[in-house]
Amino acid sequence: MYHKGIEGFPYFLGLRSLADIATRDDRVCVLNILGGESRTVTPTSHAFSGGNVIFGTSPGRGGQVLKTPVGDIPVYNNVREGLDAGHAFDTGVVYLPPSGVRDGVAELVRVNPGLRKIVIITEKISVHDAREIRAMAQANGSVAIFSNSGGFTTTIAQYLGTAGWGTTTIVSSGKDVYIHYAAPDFAHAFGNDDRSKAAVLYAEPGGYYEQGIDWTKPVVACVVGRWKSKLTRAVGHAGAMAGSGDSAEDKERWFMGAFGVPGLFTPEHPVVSAKGAVVTNIADIPAALTAVMALNGAAPDFTPRGDLALKPWVANDQGLRLPPELAMPAVTAPEPYAGQIAALGAQVGAVVARQNMKDKSGASVMDPKTQVTSVHGHSVLDLALEPLEATFALPLVHEIATENDRAMLDVAVAAEVNLVGDPILVAADAAREAGNAPNAVMATAAAIVGPKRVERALGCTRALIGLFAHSGLRDGRDEEFDASGIVCDDATRALFLATEAEAADPRPEAMLAAIAARGGRSAFLKFLGGLGGRLSRDAILAAIATTIAWGPLMRKRISRLTAETLPWYLRLYGVMVGATIPGEHHRSGSLWGIPRDERFGQWTMADLCFLAMTGKKPTPEEALPLQMLVGLLISNGPGSISAQGAKGAVSADGPQTPARVQINKAMVGFLTHTGYSHGGNGFEGMAFLLEQFKDAGLTDPSDPAHGLDLKAMATAFARTYRREKAQAKELGTEVRALPGVHHPVFKGKPVNHDPRERFIAEFMARQGKYNVFHAFYRELVQALHDQGASPYVFCVNVDAVIAALLLALLWKDFKSGALTERDLETAAFTVFLYGRMIGAAAEIDDHLNRGRNMDTRTPPPACGFVV
User: Fold this and answer.
1) For the segment 515-565, what is each residue's pLDDT rounded down to a tens digit?
2) How far apart, in whole angstroms, are the C-alpha atoms of residue 544 and residue 542?
3) Which contiguous run of DSSP H or E holds residue 219?
4) Where does residue 206 fall: left (phi above 0), alpha (psi -120 to 50 degrees), or beta otherwise?
5) Which terminal residue of the chain has fewer beta carbons within 10 Å of its beta carbon, N or C?
């Protein structure tokens, strides 16, 4: 039953020449033709070969077709169906997964007596199955089998072209443990192929296929994988792992012996013979081959085309100043790629692929080891040290804003905070008087900042982006940019100018004066200033937003959609902060007694937030803790309840139709998903500290010379707490949890630390700052252990830091009677909302750009019913 193969081989080999491996005369059946890889590759192969794929199989899909440039390929459920339909073939191509290859080959061999060749694309076939495959195929006749990984074969062919060498036949055997068409088989067919003058062999460690071959024509062997000698398991190809005597170094020696060369070929040491050369870098193959063939009196096949120098088709340095050797200019790509790249270049901003974003985020991620969340690549610990304007801008520009852009943002938000005469203020006051928590008051205000409230500002932003998109402007701050070529029609000009109904609004002039006073620069404001009319507040807001967004937009860090919606977020920021200030403090021209010009021209976001909580401007010593608090609270990742609320609102509106998504409603979603346990619980740590310090006579929490014995205070509490724990255990009741102490992740060591708390503590120490409440917490965790109330020294967690910073910030007002405990609770909740609104903005924008309609819903099988 076994057919005779080629003489001289101890196993069956059915191909005498490389010319026989693949021909246009082959009639092909493709197994799993509708699989992921075949669906892409087969149409190209079919067209290239002149249409030699007769049919394919895909169980359960019989009757379908695979469309190709040269006609449809019919699909059957199995090989027998195709043969019965009159489709004769002599070559099988197998795209099955490793576990199915044996049965696929068996089907081909069993039902088609006319089968001559099988091409197996699959890798990582088990050795047992590979042996059975060869046995089955050999029993049926002359069959060439090779496993095609494909990667470096085409790369090497392209590299050879740069030296003027063309290829006759490209074979990839793959690198499974068992190779059906290996180096000796190739050498035999190569020797019998009149077309091929030389060969290139690419070899990896593992196996002895390349040993002892008598090469009859010149060969360049590229041996790679020296680094694999220390591996204990396969990395990449299953068979590319050396055993005993078949490492990369061993194979180098085999080839050097076969070619009669004393060493490896490199450009610096071109060691060659007429028989061949050995290289370890594929980039050296063309030069080595040219040198070898010169000794054989042979010249390249054609004029060399190109070279191997790096030629980027696309370059984006992200605004970085790179060294000259790295700042490579882009070159024009060959068609059709040049046209495609040109189209991408004309595209404004980033384009992000949509996907299901349930419990996912492209904006934030929490490190499970440190519990530190990062937003657009910036740790909240680092953000705690940035000015608030930078953190408020980050969700929307994906990078830390410049000093110029921070000043612009200050003005934009300040212009929205005073709500005098606005129905928003009436609604917010009504919500407050009804006893609602701060999140509900904010939500009431945000609900009114709907699409019509921002329609004109968004329209102005779209118009500015459209006017400047292809103007060559790279930096929105560049007031020297020549905008004379940008033409603004009458309708667009009217969009930017104030109407008669806006004549009494003093804010446009105040905003422009404030930007000038802060040294703000904007190419867009300069352009609008040349239109010859009074600008509207919406136009100025749009120009500010476009200035902030322009650099990231041009660098494709953000999408055009993000840039166009930025004014909505800026307005929401201002309104939400303003809504936390009771209505009686909103006056025409002043807010809590602070004149408009002062707020617009000098105040920062930290100043505004502190004013909203306390009714006064903070000192620099007070602004820093607030800045740190907001930074720490920005995000806990997409899994937090507040983030889920924001994402769910976007998902419900349908981000695949972005114009329908109401950003203010998404902010309301975030706000309704905060509460006294998620947000308001920040007061628990403050309440605990108030209990410890209520009769201590503390006047200044920032003074290390406070005169208090913190260790004695902590020890006294620890003893009491130990008795409480013992009593609770005796009674079978639950012992009270201590806010700010312990953490489910940072535990179990003799002394434990929350890295977030240590980061802030070390920063404060470097700044020479002191906080008595934080110091008490440090004493407390040690005392709990010393008194037997804890098995080890618990960590002081980040919640304790937040409580300590905020209570120290408000302590003097509390002790003076200006603030009550209820005010402290409101302040703790409000500062959480200030921080988390930034994180919510990041999730809203991310889901708007990436998400799919209704993608946050939970599938019914994942839901449960509780009786």
Assistant:
1) 999 999 999 999 999 999 999 999 999 999 999 999 999 999 999 999 999
2) 5
3) strand 219-223
4) left
5) C
d(CA 169, CA 193): 10
Contacts of residue 394, defined as CB under 8 A and 6 or more positions apart, other chains included, come to 375, 376, 378, 383, 400, 401, 838, 842
Round to whole Å and give the CA distance between 309 and 477: 37
Q: How far apart are CA 426 and CA 583, in angstroms?
A: 7
- Closest residue by Cα to residue 160 from 296, 53, 307: 307
pLDDT tens per residue, range 151-193: 677 678 778 888 888 877 777 776 666 677 788 888 998 888 8
Lowest-pLDDT range, 43-52, 124-133, 229-238?
229-238
CA distance 95 to 34: 9
Q: 803-821 pLDDT, tens per residue? A: 899 899 899 999 999 889 8
Query: What span, in angstroms and rounded, lies between the C-alpha atoms of 758 and 795?
Result: 10
Contact 514, 601 (CB under 8 A): yes
How many whole angstroms separate alpha carbon 383 and alpha carbon 379? Answer: 6
* Coil vs helix vs strand at 56: strand
> How far is residue 316's CA from residue 341's CA, in Å, rounded to a whole number?
13
Residue 80 has pLDDT above 80, yes or no: yes
Pairing state between β 53-57 and 28-31: parallel
Spatial neighbors of 534 by CB under 8 A, at least 6 apart, are: 497, 498, 508
Of the candidates 220, 251, 224, the one whose C-alpha atom is nearest the C-alpha of residue 237 is: 224
Whole-number Å distance between alpha carbons of 385 and 489? 45
pLDDT recorded at residue 140: 46
Alpha helix positions (H), 470-536: 490-496, 507-517, 523-529
Residue 31 bridge partners (DSSP): 57, 94
Lowest mean pLDDT among 76-90, 319-333, 598-612: 319-333
What tens digit of pLDDT does each residue of 200-215 get?
998 888 788 889 889 9
Would you say the pTM of this structure is higher than 0.90? Answer: no
Residues in CB range of 628: below 8 A, 6 or more apart: 384, 385, 760, 805
| Token pair for 560 | 């055009």
DSSP string covering 248-285? HHHHHHHHHHHHT-SS---SSS----SSEEEESSGGGH
Q: What is the b/e burial string over 228-242, where b = at least 16 CB atoms within 10 angstroms of the residue's CB?
A: beeeeebeebbbbbb
- Which helix (H) or strand (E) segment holds residue 456: the answer is helix 451-468
Report the amino acid identity of residue 437: A
Q: Which of 223-237, 372-386, 611-625 has the lowest mean pLDDT?
A: 223-237
